[in-house]
Amino acid sequence: MRALYLANRRVTLQHLPEPQPSPGEARIRVRLTGICDTDLHLKAGYMDFEGIPGHEFVGEVVESRHADLVGQRVVGEINAACGTCDFCRRGLGRHCPERTVLGIFGRAGTHAEYITLPDANLHVVPDTVADEEAVFTEPLAAACEVLEQVHIEPGMHVAVVGDGKLGILVARVLALTGCDLHVIGRHAHKLNLLARQGIATEHMSPGEESRLPARWADVVVECSGHPSGFETARRLLKPRGTLVLKSTYRESPSIYLAGLVVDEITVVGSRCGPFEPALRLLSRRLVRVTDLIDEQMGLSARCTGIRTRGTARSVENFARTATLSLPQEAINAAAEGSQGLAWGAAAVTMCPSVPRSPAIVSSPSPPTS
Ligand SMILES: [Zn+2]
Ligand SMILES: [Zn+2]
Q1: pLDDT digits (tens, 9 = 90+) for 231-256
Q2: Does domain 1-136+289-369 have CATH number 1.10.10.10?
Q3: What are the residue numbers of the active site?
Q4: Contact of 337 with 358, CB cutoff 8 Å
Q5: Closest ligand to the CA of 223
Q6: I need a labelling partner for 65 at 20 to 30 A (CA). Which of 120, 127, 175, 233 fits?
Q7: pTM of the shown model
Q8: Architecture label for domain 143-269
Q9: How far is CA 182 from the centre of its chain?
């Protein structure tokens, strides 16, 4: 099968053996896979990962001991837990010390034609949810996790710091609570996606301070990915406020910890979330995701011609590395429409096998509502 392979901070397209499922696992043909910031961090050395990256996907089960799963369109939780340790027995499989993590730690990821995952990790996608929506289930679940951890009342002041894919999804989920929500970001075109749905946004350049009053927020969700986002979030919080930390900073931010003590701030680390609510939000059309996809294209010479779109530069770099090392046979195959890449300003989505003429999914500039 074809797969993107990451080693020594380089991504190449390779022909690799198809993965064989272990007992309790299903083999899944990937229909669509999203490139996430985490992939870019992995490429930069995060987790020392070598192998097939990718963890956001929608696919079709081709092999499983559960006959009712075979042929189903599924999404999958990324933590494959041991199922027997103390944490697993307490329902904390996401924190199992023996776990592997799809495309991140100890388990080949989804930027490939086939993957394996435990049957228990799979969730069948309702027919009403398109592939282009289902591929966002994993990050949308991560957004839902905030509501599992923090009780947000409609009267609360809530800020989201960061306007990447996760920040936008968190904002869209929190907006459903009716809270007084403000999103602070650095990218006008991404903030626009939220402003169009009536969410208050604020553009803040590096080095600037938010125009929101200090000590305004009851809850701040920090999704910026930049250590400076921590200070922005901290400044906005009321005493006894809650800082939900989504960013996994590559560098350690320098934090004035005594300030957290004096103001009695609660810091909540927040990572993966529940898939079923995320699928419900998608199927009921309560959270829109497809406007986060920019374009869908074949994994071919077309990829090398992709335009730099401001903030998508790092994403472009990821694929350009992959594309430049494409073997000629893969380029030929792609020309026949057997492979595709879809690309986003906030998310990049790739189809290991797309229909003959890959559709343009949407374009954020100019956005359509
Ligand atoms: Zn991700
Ligand atoms: Zn375990």
Answers
A1: 999 999 999 999 999 998 877 778 88
A2: no
A3: 38, 41
A4: yes
A5: 1
A6: 127
A7: 0.83
A8: 3-Layer(aba) Sandwich (3.40)
A9: 21
- The ligand whose atoms approach the alpha carbon of 94 most closely is 2
55 CA to middle of ligand 1, Å? 6
Q: Which ligand is nearest to the CA of 86?
A: 2
Residue 189 has pLDDT above 60, yes or no: yes
Residue for token pair 């809530």: 158
The DSSP letter of residue 51 is: B
Query: 78: CA distance to ligand 1 center in Å?
Result: 10
Exposed, middle or buried, 328 (CB in 10 Å: 0-12/13-18/19+)? exposed
C-alpha 214 – ligand 1 centre gap (Å): 31
Quote the CA–CA distance of 120 and 258 in Å, as a whole number: 43
Amino acid type, 129: V
Distance CA 244, CA 162 (A): 12
- What is the rounded CA–CA span in Å between residue 265 and residue 308? 40
φ/ψ (deg, to 5) at 80: -100, 105
In this predicted structure, what is the pLDDT of residue 350?
Answer: 63
Q: Where are the alpha helices (DSSP H) in the chain?
A: 37-43, 86-89, 131-134, 137-149, 165-175, 188-195, 227-236, 257-262, 275-283, 301-304, 313-324, 328-335
* Domain definitions of the chain by residue range: 1-136+289-369, 143-269
For residue 98, the CA-to-ligand 2 centroid distance in Å is 6
The span from the CA of 126 to the CA of 139, in Å, is 18
Using alpha carbons, select from 94, 314, 292, 142 the residue that is nearest to residue 226: 314
Residue 108 to residue 94: CA distance in whole angstroms? 17
Residues 46-73 have pLDDT tens digits of 888 999 999 999 999 999 999 999 999 9
Q: Say how many Å lie between the CA of residue 272 and the centre of ligand 2.
A: 16
Is 283 within 8 Å of 145 (Cβ atoms)? no
